[in-house]
Amino acid sequence: MDMLDSLRELLAGVKAGDLDVEAGLARLRDLPYLELGHTKIDLHRSLRNGFPEVVYAAGKTPEQVAEIFTRMGEHSHVLATRVSAEMACHVQAACPGVVYNPLGRTLTSVKGEIAWREGEIAIVTAGTSDLPVAEEARVTCEMFGSRAVVVSDVGVAGIHRLFDRLHTLRQARVIIVVAGMEGALASVIGGLVPQPIVAVPTSVGYGAALSGFTALCGMLTSCASGVTVVNIDNGFGAACAACKINNLFP
Amino acid sequence: MDMLDSLRELLAGVKAGDLDVEAGLARLRDLPYLELGHTKIDLHRSLRNGFPEVVYAAGKTPEQVAEIFTRMGEHSHVLATRVSAEMACHVQAACPGVVYNPLGRTLTSVKGEIAWREGEIAIVTAGTSDLPVAEEARVTCEMFGSRAVVVSDVGVAGIHRLFDRLHTLRQARVIIVVAGMEGALASVIGGLVPQPIVAVPTSVGYGAALSGFTALCGMLTSCASGVTVVNIDNGFGAACAACKINNLFP
Amino acid sequence: MDMLDSLRELLAGVKAGDLDVEAGLARLRDLPYLELGHTKIDLHRSLRNGFPEVVYAAGKTPEQVAEIFTRMGEHSHVLATRVSAEMACHVQAACPGVVYNPLGRTLTSVKGEIAWREGEIAIVTAGTSDLPVAEEARVTCEMFGSRAVVVSDVGVAGIHRLFDRLHTLRQARVIIVVAGMEGALASVIGGLVPQPIVAVPTSVGYGAALSGFTALCGMLTSCASGVTVVNIDNGFGAACAACKINNLFP
Amino acid sequence: MDMLDSLRELLAGVKAGDLDVEAGLARLRDLPYLELGHTKIDLHRSLRNGFPEVVYAAGKTPEQVAEIFTRMGEHSHVLATRVSAEMACHVQAACPGVVYNPLGRTLTSVKGEIAWREGEIAIVTAGTSDLPVAEEARVTCEMFGSRAVVVSDVGVAGIHRLFDRLHTLRQARVIIVVAGMEGALASVIGGLVPQPIVAVPTSVGYGAALSGFTALCGMLTSCASGVTVVNIDNGFGAACAACKINNLFP
Amino acid sequence: MDMLDSLRELLAGVKAGDLDVEAGLARLRDLPYLELGHTKIDLHRSLRNGFPEVVYAAGKTPEQVAEIFTRMGEHSHVLATRVSAEMACHVQAACPGVVYNPLGRTLTSVKGEIAWREGEIAIVTAGTSDLPVAEEARVTCEMFGSRAVVVSDVGVAGIHRLFDRLHTLRQARVIIVVAGMEGALASVIGGLVPQPIVAVPTSVGYGAALSGFTALCGMLTSCASGVTVVNIDNGFGAACAACKINNLFP
Amino acid sequence: MDMLDSLRELLAGVKAGDLDVEAGLARLRDLPYLELGHTKIDLHRSLRNGFPEVVYAAGKTPEQVAEIFTRMGEHSHVLATRVSAEMACHVQAACPGVVYNPLGRTLTSVKGEIAWREGEIAIVTAGTSDLPVAEEARVTCEMFGSRAVVVSDVGVAGIHRLFDRLHTLRQARVIIVVAGMEGALASVIGGLVPQPIVAVPTSVGYGAALSGFTALCGMLTSCASGVTVVNIDNGFGAACAACKINNLFP
Amino acid sequence: MDMLDSLRELLAGVKAGDLDVEAGLARLRDLPYLELGHTKIDLHRSLRNGFPEVVYAAGKTPEQVAEIFTRMGEHSHVLATRVSAEMACHVQAACPGVVYNPLGRTLTSVKGEIAWREGEIAIVTAGTSDLPVAEEARVTCEMFGSRAVVVSDVGVAGIHRLFDRLHTLRQARVIIVVAGMEGALASVIGGLVPQPIVAVPTSVGYGAALSGFTALCGMLTSCASGVTVVNIDNGFGAACAACKINNLFP
Amino acid sequence: MDMLDSLRELLAGVKAGDLDVEAGLARLRDLPYLELGHTKIDLHRSLRNGFPEVVYAAGKTPEQVAEIFTRMGEHSHVLATRVSAEMACHVQAACPGVVYNPLGRTLTSVKGEIAWREGEIAIVTAGTSDLPVAEEARVTCEMFGSRAVVVSDVGVAGIHRLFDRLHTLRQARVIIVVAGMEGALASVIGGLVPQPIVAVPTSVGYGAALSGFTALCGMLTSCASGVTVVNIDNGFGAACAACKINNLFP
């Protein structure tokens, strides 16, 4: 229901006397929330399509994160990213069903079952040290209902390894490319397959790797057109973008 | 047809004597081109789905660009970006049917008709000075077969203007957000709609706008998750990414 | 009393014999201190308008800070910023009445009562991780005699939350906006209200957030004109600026 | 009149039958514009308090700027910044009463008279090459109804020149400090006077002056607390901030 | 002949009376020049192995460059880089036999014949806009006596084109890789062939290409080990390095 | 054996019936690996020319590194770089014959004997704090079969020390120059000797040394032409490049 | 005469009736100017020690510079730096005796004769393209009364040329080193001679030369201790610093 | 004695038979060391003018530093900078007479007595957190024979404190200014006194202070001409430069 429709209905109700002025005023204050609001919308969305709330745990206390899992876990799946092992211990003690993924540093709580969508997301890494970022992306995809497959260690220095996995990449609906150092893998894959590609630069490397900015800028200037990029080490954001694409399908 | 299938067929042909060794050798050399090659693939792709070759005109001579339009224009649509008015004059003199868009600085030549796909792409700009980048994106979308609508001047300083156009944004399959200065529009739209968003930072602004890097980094760190980003002023790249998504649909 | 008035009075006194030459010389040496001097001025100012001395504790020893609280606390309020929990323990052991605020990392000692001014300062944060900076600002405002209200977690990703608090913002005399990542909140608020806005970028975020420089540059290039900016994480400085504005009123 | 008051009045009118549903709907669509909208608000604000529309001329065509002066000039004052001499010629030919300030590169058109407020703004420059930025600030202040006085060439290399003008600075309600190179003047003035200070770094200098970023960062880290900063060379923005403070007074 | 040998011979000559003290003194002053000196050494080296003097023309006047060609051309080959068309006209008018290469912006004068060495240098470019840098490298190689072959437009976006030319690359003694944007070609080639690779980043690209620094840093952090790098657009330097390697062979 | 030769042989075998179609298919899948593949190629190369596998230990677990040494050590030499003392203890406990070099932070395991090549590589350092990088380079050279000599502490501040060692430098086939701070040593040596020079900037220094970027950029802009550069502190990469040159000789 | 002495004398005069109060007040206002003031001090200084006023012409109009030469030229020497040929023409037309140095881009007017001091300043350049900066330094030294000798083109790539000129350097009281690219010459000279060294980085070079910042940072991190540095291309500033040292001598 | 004189004498000796060829050869090898050599020269210089060897302790082991103090301490004063408390303990245990300064982090060993020169060096700091750098400078000055006086906490925020100490500054031969944040103090002092000024930026501050680079660039672009600058936190280097100036006097 569109906002103008909502307003038209409300005014008709006031005119008809079904709503008095103060009640209409209260509804007018609330209406944007039905369209735009945070907490309420999020619960509705969760009941409707299985999307969980997401908690960025860095900079929160274990108590805060545990409380979020307790309260939200009654209504929906819950996903937290950037969770240290210490914080995970604390939260798991308070919320028994919560699962910790030490490689991807995620905490997850599934309410009922995940409603799987069709369409697979391929997550490709250049090296083994890119795996934590890929794992964060994989867990996020699955919590959002999209199946994901990780293809690791197919970096440009031994490009034949990639060619052997092209079949897998070509079956995916969206491809997430995770690479540090010079980030060349995004360009190479972008020149080989037609799917949407979301590139994640990683902070792997030293010196001129510039904590990931060389890979970031390299991906942004990729000679393969149509590659889009997210923040350094942001596996979660790449998964969000990939799932937004996959969610376009019914 | 997959590469292994091609190889199996080829080997069977050699075994059967349908292909002698040297011919098979030539086919083996050529096969990757059928899968991966540049010029040939591009022609095939153009005949199959109306996708044009794209010419990055900056750094090429007018003669080179005119020759590309002449030769390619017989087989497919042709799109050139970053074309100055002077170069456009030269190419149009040589190739009469070529169209110049001075705002978006594109040259286009359509072979037959564009095969329109379903699914619209919305291109939103923060200010009027972002329009050239938006226009480059719009022309690219259309040359790739996706209809695009431009919603301009709905920047964050007068955010109510955006709210009035949300209806339009919600009807699009993908949204391209074009903004300079602090680039906040991508975050605001990302918080309001569920579609995939491709953000294009522009070099509009001075001083701390850092020639577009402030918008670029702002979009990469957007608090609205799932926003992906392309290079500064790269309307063409954003359109490629958006069309790759739209092309997922039959 | 103006410096020229002071000099005129002094010279008249010397001419009249009320001051001999050496005493006049001493007064001349001291006069600038009455106008410009550090320790003395600060005490006078404190007695006159309740403004405390401010101690930047980072890089000082606990002993030094304790000594400052002991000596200054007899004459005026005292405020120290960037105080670690360890330093706070040490100072509180030496100076019993001193209060530690662990969120804002401030130590305060109030001499008598705070002389409250009219005019409220609103401190708005984009996210919960911006709260330590907001709290430093809030404590500073109050030690300077201005009441402050904190409105937290109204960032751009869920912009309706902000609209619900506009009433509060519109009642404030000055608004401090505290935001990390892309810092878009300053632009959005700057487009909605007429008051002076002091923006504080925070170091919240990673990668392209550039330790707060993306928010800093984004705020400096805000499309909402009239936003002014202080250093990254500098809640104290923003409060100083806001109080300087509030102090313009009698 | 507050937004809730407006809504209450509107609903009462619909209930009473003074407004039918579609008319109420139209008013509801417009209401946010009365509070938040761009063009309309600006006209209302201009009629109410003499504030002009402001046009950032860089990146606009002379025709566009002339049209804005023609259309807006009927209703309100008009101010355009960053206007080249060529553009000014064009606009003045089309709009006879428009005034060009070549130093500050502003175009102005005054509708009726400027409604002067009490409270003066002092604009201080470190050197003569900072004058264009100061002049942009001065014209902006005056178009917004605040009188401004420029104190030029009192930079730190000859600091006694500043001391002679302290009397003038102390009479102002707000002080704008314009300085390039190392930008030290903001710190020195911030240590001498109690008023709000808005610092404008300029791009004056070469090499390590970093096109104004050294002054920008120097002002942001000023040892004099409470100095706020705007973008490099942004005299207009500093004037907006200063006038927002002056406008707090009736 | 080693420096100690030279000194021993000289001292023996003085002892024997073949050299008087002042003549020995003059020789001692000159000796380092025979080993280390600029002008003299260069002439000797040129007569010995055909190596030309090299003139960096940027920042020199046409008169200076013409004089160098006139004077040096009598003794050796001469090579000048970064020569504008205007300067070339001037020099060619003064020195009839000098050849201008407008693509590589070089001026060359060959004294007698080039003494060709065995061993070929392959110069590979990612795109056509990298050709000027490749041409500067090619001319430099040839003036230094090494034959060079240019393989252009085999960038990563269409990687099969590279595979077709691997045979050529594998025949070279050294490979120079010239690429802009993300510079991925150096990594891909470095993973495929065993020869020494000298990578030249180019300033091709915009925005996040950072005027060649993205390619520079990408090449420095190449996941293919053993790639070495020269300055942005420095085709001359890459050729020097490649020829130093080729010159190791007799 | 070249790839085309391999294919020709394979096709002839299929035609002759020596290989059936599926076996040929498997060989075709494997063939690139024989030329380009990761694990297999490395074993073959090791058996053929004594080149070891190289493990970048940073970001790997001690268990992973120990497993690599156990498995690879049966077939070839093994070299690991960036190995902490703790990791070394763990690996040595699991693999008794492995040698740890605490200065160069390398772990090495030699299978049989190193097959020494002719041709020495000189590794020159500016200061004693550059020694760890030089040692990493030295160990790498030796594991790759090239003898290396380290000449340390001949930096520019006492340039006569260098002159005394020129004899040693002139006997080397390739020279690796390791220097931090301003990195001037590469320019000085590049002006004195004709050999290929690979420069390694180090992160020695503070402040304006910019963690090695000042040395990096200084070496890239060296006034001595033909100097090539690798990443900061990348002694391993410099050794790879030097050995690639030395390996050109039979 | 010290400031306290001045004040004591003044007060005694007022007490004695030699000065009435208002006259004393005027003297008190002026006194700081006698110590610190700009215009007056400069004239006095010029009469006393031959030091000229210095005009930074960049950003001034030809009319302003001509006026300064006309007015100041009556009292003292005048020096202007960064003067274009066009501005020089204009000023020379208005002020006949003014001399233009096109290499150093200075305008000078000598009042009477220069009072030469003892002690020579050596100005050393790495290359010929550094000469404009060296010439600006030379002219400035001479206008300040210190003789200067320029030793050019003794850069590190041919270091023996420097050794031949050490005799000249060792006779100077202060050495100014002017170098671009990697700026290594400052370190080499700093290791060879005991005098104070003022290093001037120049913007000579491209790419990784970073417009002079590589030389700047290289000089700041010089391994030869005691080298001090001024801004990029700031020959004037280096000469000021050198003359301040030379002026310490009677 | 000049190098040419040395050579002339040597040759005459060989001619006369006072030196045979091999002895002359040895002398020729050694001569440069007498002029330029590191270890020998340093000992000679120490015996001649009391200058100590200087050890940069960062990156050295306690054992190495202790050995240097033991060996060098027999011949000369010894100074080590950047010494941690742990290293100091170790060295003092091995070398009983060595003195540790914990504020300046220096270790010193005085051989006999310091030979004091005339001429004082003033070291001025902006704040108390700049004191460690000032103390490193003070100790260095004294070990080099120049007396130094520290004037602390006279920063720009309370500029009257500086004016009270001008008398002290004016008595010094050279002034070292130590300041962090915006580094304005160097400009203010440079405008008030005629002596040579060596400015040391410090890493005091956060955010836009950029770890000292804002102060560094501010000092380099100081509007007070003739200020020279050393690396961030480099109190040792500033003292070296100041002593080189003071050493010009007999």
From TrEMBL, chains A, B, C, D, E, F, G, H:
Residues 119-248 form the PurE domain. SUPFAM superfamilies: N5-CAIR mutase (phosphoribosylaminoimidazole carboxylase, PurE). One of its GO terms (molecular function) is hydrolase activity. GO terms for biological process: 'de novo' IMP biosynthetic process. Pfam families: AIRC (PF00731). This is 1-(5-phosphoribosyl)-5-amino-4-imidazole-carboxylate (AIR) carboxylase. The lineage of its organism: Bacteria, Pseudomonadati, Thermodesulfobacteriota, Desulfovibrionia, Desulfovibrionales.
